[in-house]
Amino acid sequence: MADKLIITLAQLNQKVGDLAANAAAMLATRSKAMHSDLIVFPEMQLIGYPPEDLILKPALIERAAVELEKMAQVTADGGPAMLVGSVFVRDGALHNGVALLDQGRIVATRFKYELPNYGTFDEKRLFLPGPLPEPVPFRGAILGLPICEDIWHPDVCRHLAQLGAEIFVCVNGSPYEIDKDVLRIDGVAKRRAIDTGIPLAYVNRVGGQDEIVFDGASFVVGPEGALWVQLPDWEEAVVDTVWNKVPFGHGHRWRCEAGDVADLAEHPEDIYAAMVMALRDYVNKNRFPGVLLGLSGGIDSALCAAIAVDALGAERVWCVMLPSRYTSQESLDDAAGCAQMLGVRLDTVPISPAVDGFTQMLAPLFEGRAPDLTEENLQSRIRGTTLMALSNKFGPMLVTTGNKSEMSVGYATIYGDMNGGYNPLKDAYKTTVFAISRWRNAHRPKIGLGPDGPVMPERVIAKPPSAELRPDQKDEDSLPPYDVLDAILLGLVEHEKSVDQIAAEGFERATVERIERLLHLAEYKRRQAPPGVKLGMRNFGRDRRYPITQGFRTA
């Protein structure tokens, strides 16, 4: 019976559906850790997570079984075993599970018992829950193998403990949300460890997948709640944890040697890192050569340019200024200053010829009607068409730059500034945009490829936001101040509060009623918006799914 184990935690990225590449990455990790007893990979690492309806393709399930068997055969060399997440078919039903590969074969499989079906998760639509899992004997230890959601409820860990589990090894596909790392460790993992008296190793993936991003931050906690090992966030990491069998009472228990405890990104660096990693993986995994964006001289586009440079490097970011007759010299100067600070290419394409052309073309039909929002939106749509033309001609993906405050109330032009392939700010309120911009001007993120020092002129952050679609226009001509607007939206969107509840908190009732009305009216726009990284508890899309056509109001 062994009295020492090396369990390697492999916090890796993955690409959904690329089974061969995912398997190759795991085997490459194993080849560098031949000293280990067990290498643990994140949830569904072979398939990728979340697989959504791709998991319903029989061909994918068949290939996954073949790849898993090939991986198992590799372990016939007597080296480390592997704990690999995949999809499994039992009695015609699909299960999210893990397989223990050792001695050339699949020696055990365990299925997820608690299937999450909230927010970004939709697992009950795809999988059936497995039975309460039994522990797995492994090289002198007895392992409990809860899968992600299984540890968010006490039953699975208590069941495993009652059956003699000595170490919990929990594989996860836990997406980033603000303050999620604290919740995972203090609110969940430590509770399970203290409740059962069993240490817990938690392995999470890292990387972006469409609208969600995984922050890694894997860890090991002891039965007293102590943090024994902490892997870094926002980067791949492969870390050995050393376990020793030590006397305890009339028997023994397993204890992990204290290892490195990495510092995790604090707020708001975590938000910025999420944006960078999500954009980086979206562009690279979809094989775009780079990105293109309209740089207006305002804070939203300046921040998106900084995120893009930190994600991809300045050489893969192309900025275009699209001035109209309402564009101020200050905006021209600020856009140029931002581009210079970031080291990106900046071209200028005046839109006045196109505006004049459309004005003349539509003049017979518009005769007798005063200029209004139509002419303002026309400018935005000309900009959107111009940027899409450059994207089509040269290949870079167009980045959309609207923030969540604007998207909430429809302060954006469909087929105009909403054009693009991905929006880093989609789940960031305007007040968050200000905070992140100030942070990035004073700090460089550890995963960033951009420059040290400021990335935008200070005036970009300080000046009143404006769409510059008419003379002397300011956002606050149409909207409440952003600190007020965002507080109301947090109540309406994140917390589903009524108008009465928010008004009772001190906000002007008429303003709250107006914002609720705008929020519902803009639903059709949001359905046609590009994807963007989820940051908070309820993003538009995966978390908050409202009907477009509906008549309910809380006022």
UniProtKB/TrEMBL annotation:
Keyword NAD: yes
Keyword Protease listed: no
Active site (UniProt): E43, K112, C148
Catalytic reaction(s) noted: deamido-NAD(+) + L-glutamine + ATP + H2O = L-glutamate + AMP + diphosphate + NAD(+) + H(+)
Residues the entry annotates as binding ATP: G294, L295, S296, G297, G298, I299, D300, S301, T401
Keyword vocabulary terms for this entry: ATP-binding, Ligase, NAD, Nucleotide-binding
Pathway: Cofactor biosynthesis; NAD(+) biosynthesis; NAD(+) from deamido-NAD(+) (L-Gln route): step 1/1
Residues in CN hydrolase domain copies: 5-248
Residues reported to bind deamido-NAD(+): N377, E406, K525
Pfam family, one: CN_hydrolase
PROSITE patterns: CN_HYDROLASE
Residues that, per the record, bind L-glutamine: Y118, S174, K180
InterPro entries assigned: C-N_Hydrolase, C-N_Hydrolase_sf, Gln-dep_NAD_synthase, NAD/GMP_synthase, NAD_synthase, Rossmann-like_a/b/a_fold
E.C. no: 6.3.5.1
Domain of life: Bacteria
Family: Belongs to the NAD synthetase family.
Function: Catalyzes the ATP-dependent amidation of deamido-NAD to form NAD. Uses L-glutamine as a nitrogen source.
Protein name: Glutamine-dependent NAD(+) synthetase
Source organism: Novosphingobium pituita
Name of the coding gene: nadE
